[in-house]
Amino acid sequence: MSRRPAEEMSRVMRTRLDKLQALQAKGIEPFAYSFDVTLRAAPSVAAFKEVEAGGSVEAGQGPQGRWAGRMVAFRSHGRSAFADLEDHTGRVQVYLKRNVLGPDAYELLDLLDLGDWIGVEGRLFRTRAGQVTVRAEAIALLAKSLRPLPLGKVEVDAETGGTRTWSGFADRETRYRQRYADLAVNPRVREVFRARAAVIATARRFLDDLGFLEVETPVLQPVYGGASARPFVTRHNALDRTLYLRIADELYLKRLIVGGLDRVYEISKDFRNEGIDRFHNPEFTMLEFYQAFADYEEMMDVVERLFVALANAVKGRTECTFQGEAISFARPFARISFVDALAGALGADPTEAPPEELRNRAEDLGADDLEGAGRGKLMDKLFGELVQPALVQPTFVLDYPRELSPLAKPKRGASGLAERFELYVAGEELANAFSELNDPLAQRARFEDQAELRAAGDAEAQMVDEDYIRALEYGLPPTGGVGVGIDRVVMLLTDQASIRDVILFPTLREVE
Predict the structure, then answer these.
(1) Residue 24: which CATH number?
(2) Is position 220 within any domain?
(3) pLDDT tens digits for 395-434?
(4) Same domain? 404 vs 488
């Protein structure tokens, strides 16, 4: 969009402020307290058409009602005018006529601007041009817009008769910073966040129906854990202690399994002090759920059914398209071995190759953050470069190196591996799951291994959590656990290229 010079913007806003003062001088409240809305734009138009098709509309007259929304278009014809009113359902045209509204109410139109919130009372009818319209009998100003919205314009294609909307708000960075304006002028953006709400509601309903209990665990934690990541650090003044914003919910949710809540889940905000790219935001939303007496095989079945439910909730089917790739969530999902897939890509067994050879290959591929990396992390980096991009259709990757999975049980019959799976779709990880490690002695040893990695320079290695070990000493039954990245799921199902397009207020760099 072409930016207005500062002085021109000031002039436009000054004109709107002058109108505000003129309204106040007339005794008109420019910021109303309420308005009794009885009909919504799109449903009322659809209902009118349905009744009309059945021959029940007499003399072209539809239902009486009250509509409210933002005025997004205005066309004056002297003693009459047309306006487009937009609410959260869509748009409806409004016909405003001087001899119906009365001269005082009609003169109010001169003090309105695009972007103002208005309410109208009237009756639906179909114009001679064929458009279902509200014939306004009364109009009210609900909120004066002092800053012009970048509404763009709609043009009619002379050849096809179709319309094209040209957004007046094309700069993505500005849209993220001013999401309120982005939502106001881009209906498609509003649909993305309705889809996000549907994903969360569906996940909640799915787990509730399986007997899971929704719980809440601490955001501020004395010891962070449950994932390999750098935390945000804060200070509690009254307690005079360092606390961390959680990087995962896992360790607290498994404490609840110890306590006898045998199926629990949480939909939460987590925080990781990491870089920002199209799949990573420092603040993100996770779904984690844990089921006593289950292992990772059983949780794979639950995850498949969950993703089928999520796809149906958003798309109405098990297929979607993401960035030009057709994706199918038809069951069963593919399953591959982490080690076998990486061995095939490397041309050598990664569990036997010298660590320095793995490091050199990772560096050659451009992998970063290799400081203090052991064999497991090097294998993970290589997998991300060589295997992951090809995992387009839903694929469970099974049995990760134990070093990468300090909270997972050892793989039965396979030394050095853990019972863990990750679900990849369109080349990105969407879910991570374990047969949860429930041996407190083994868990302490794993934490101590992580401490050695931290000492060697791996800032993402996990800390020793003594209280969590104490909980395990009381007894954690066999448990399967899953984490699902909600933001990435929404990206996939709404075909959005960046995580910032599915977070209402993403973390952004400071404007200089």
Answers:
(1) 2.40.50.140
(2) yes
(3) 999 999 998 898 999 999 998 999 999 999 999 999 999 9
(4) yes
Place of tokens 């014809």: 77
Last residue of a domain, one of 148, 179, 210: 148
pLDDT band at 151 (very low <50, low <70, confident <90, very high): confident
Domains contained in the chain, number: 2
User: Tell me: the pLDDT tens digits for 77-86?
Assistant: 999 999 999 9
Residue 350's nearest CA partner among 369, 368, 375 is 375
Q: Is 198 found in the same domain as 115?
A: no
* Domain end among 148, 164, 198: 148
User: Which residue has better confidence, 309 or 376?
Assistant: 309
Residue 39 pLDDT greater than 70, yes or no:
yes
Would you say 124 and 115 are in contact if contact means Cβ atoms under 8 Å apart?
no
The answer as to whether 493 is a domain residue is: yes
Inter-residue contact 85 to 118 (CB < 8 Å)? yes
Q: Do 137 and 199 belong to one domain?
A: no
Cα(313)–Cα(308) distance, rounded to whole angstroms? Answer: 9
In a domain, 510, yes or no: no
Do 325 and 253 share a domain, yes or no? Answer: yes
Which of 217, 201, 199 lies closest to 209, judged by CA? Answer: 201
Assigned domain for 370 exists: no
The CATH code of the domain that includes 317 is 3.30.930.10
Where do we find the tokens 């959590």?
Answer: 465
96 and 235 belong to one structural domain: no
The arithmetic mean of pLDDT across residues 446-474, rounded, is 91
Q: What is the Cα–Cα distance from 307 to 228, expressed in whole angstroms?
A: 25
What value does the mean pLDDT of the chain take?
A: 92
Q: Report pLDDT for 369.
A: 79
Quick check: bond before 332 cis, omega within 30? Answer: yes
Measured between alpha carbons, how far is residue 511 from residues 281, 392, 408, 507 in Å?
A: 17, 36, 42, 12
> Which position has the higher pLDDT, 140 or 452?
140
Quote the CA–CA distance of 249 and 268 in Å, as a whole number: 8
254 three-state secondary structure: helix
280 is written with which tokens? 């990573």
Query: Among 355, 373, 338, which residue's Cα sits nearest to residue 461?
Result: 373
Quote the CA–CA distance of 329 and 308 in Å, as a whole number. Answer: 6
Residues 314 and 399 in one domain: yes
- This prediction has a pTM of 0.90
Among candidate residues 444, 435, 129, 501, the one with its CA nearest the CA of residue 293:
435
For 131, the domain range is 6-148
pLDDT at 1: 39
Task: Let me know: does 144 contact 90? Beta carbons within 8 Å.
Answer: no
Euclidean distance between CA atoms 480 and 414, whole angstroms: 19
